[in-house]
Amino acid sequence: MAKNQAPSPPPEPGVKPAGKGKLKLILLVVVALLLAIGLSVGATWFLLSKGDSGQDEESAAPVAAAPVRQAAIYEPLVPAFVVNFNHQGRQRYMQVSVTLMGRDQAALDALKVHMPLLRNNLVMLLSSQDFALLGTPAGMEMLRQQITASVQELGQKELGKPVIEQALFTNFVLQ
C-alpha cells in the first residue's frame, strides 16, 4: 500500500514560503532589541562608573583624614529596675530594662566598678518620676535623656569622661 502523492511544484525563484520569512523577521527583531538593551546597559554602567571613580579620588582624602569611629558597644544593666509609685491612691509599678551604649570597652569596664552608685542614682531618678507623664512617648523620651545625663555625669565625676553616648530602653512596663 503505497501512498500516491503528487509532487509539489518547485518553488518560484525569489519567493520564500510565508512561515520561514516571518520567523526570520521575528528573530532579527528580537536580536536587535537584545543588542540595543545590552548597549544601553553597558553605556549606562560605563558612564556611572566613570563618574564614581572621579568622586572617589576627590573624596578619598577627606575620608582618610576623618577619625575612624569605633563600633558601638552595648552594656545591659541587669537585673531590670523595678520601682513603685503611689498614683492617685493606687499602688503602681514600673519595670525598666536599660542598656548603655558606649564606644570604649575599657571605659565601660571601669564604669562597672561604680555599678552600685550608678544603680542607686537610677533607682532614685526612676522613682521620682510622675506616673502619668511616663505613659506618653514624650515622657519616656525625657526619662531616657535624664538617665543618659545621670550616667554621663557619674562617668565624668568618677572617670573623667562621659563613658556612654546614650542609654536605651530595652523593656519598659508600667502597671
Automatic annotation (TrEMBL):
GO process terms (BP): bacterial-type flagellum-dependent swarming motility; chemotaxis
Short name of one Pfam family: FliL
Membrane association type: Single-pass membrane protein
Family classification: Belongs to the FliL family.
Highest taxon of source: Bacteria
Chief location bin: membrane
Biological role: Controls the rotational direction of flagella during chemotaxis.
Location in or out of the cell: Cell inner membrane; Cell membrane
Keywords: Cell inner membrane, Cell membrane, Cell projection, Chemotaxis, Cilium, Flagellar rotation, Flagellum, Membrane, Transmembrane, Transmembrane helix
Segments crossing the lipid bilayer: 25-48
Protein name: Flagellar protein FliL
